[in-house]
Amino acid sequence: MGSVVYGPVPSWRLGKSLGVDLLSTSVKTCSFNCVYCQLGTTNNRLAERREFVPLSQLASELEQVRDVDADYVTFSGVGEPTLASNLGQAIDLARKILKLPVAVLTNSSLMPEEGVRRQLALADVVVAKLDAPNEKLFHTVNRPVTTYGLDQIVLGLERFRL
Predict the structure, then answer these.
(1) 96-146, pLDDT tens digit by residue?
(2) What pTM does this model have?
């Protein structure tokens, strides 16, 4: 397992973004296997949430970059950040240590889950993607691992927006 914190990296959405990879796996771990993904094929296809990185490790690494000049702390990395069951606690920890706004980049696959929406609501910015207009294209383009269909994901996004 490598470093959990990386950057800062330039982001056209968020300025200078200090990245946090709460999965920090050696291969891409995701609930989708999108045909266009810049990270390539999903080697670790997963739809169940679990803890990948202990909060103690995250805290230690965040302390080391406390003085880094950044505009945001952004949870993304080599996979889908909402797969991390401790995402909400990690968001709170990052905000407390770094005193920066927090963003999460998500593929929206787990938006049907109330616990995921509750944890994402702790972030200042959530960039949630939805790039298929129907179920057939959803399966063709995103190639989901999750059992949630497009309609359930859309409903989860609508509920999150409220």
Answers:
(1) 999 999 999 999 999 999 999 999 999 999 999 999 999 999 999 999 997
(2) 0.92
Work out the end-to-end distance of the chain between its first and last CA atoms, rounded to an integer number of angstroms. Answer: 37
How confident is the model over 140-153, as pLDDT tens digits? Answer: 999 999 778 999 99
Cα distance between residue 47 and residue 29, in whole Å: 9
- 29-68 pLDDT, tens digit per residue, is 999 999 998 888 888 888 999 999 999 999 999 999 999 9
Label residue 15 exposed, middle or buried (CB < 10 Å: 0-12, 13-18, 19+): exposed
* Cβ-proximal residues to 73 (8 Å cutoff; 6+ apart), any chain: 17, 18, 20, 94, 95, 98, 100, 101, 102, 103
**Is the separation of the CB atoms in 31 and 146 below 8 Å?**
yes
Q: Measure the CA–CA gap between 129 and 105, rounded to whole angstroms.
A: 8
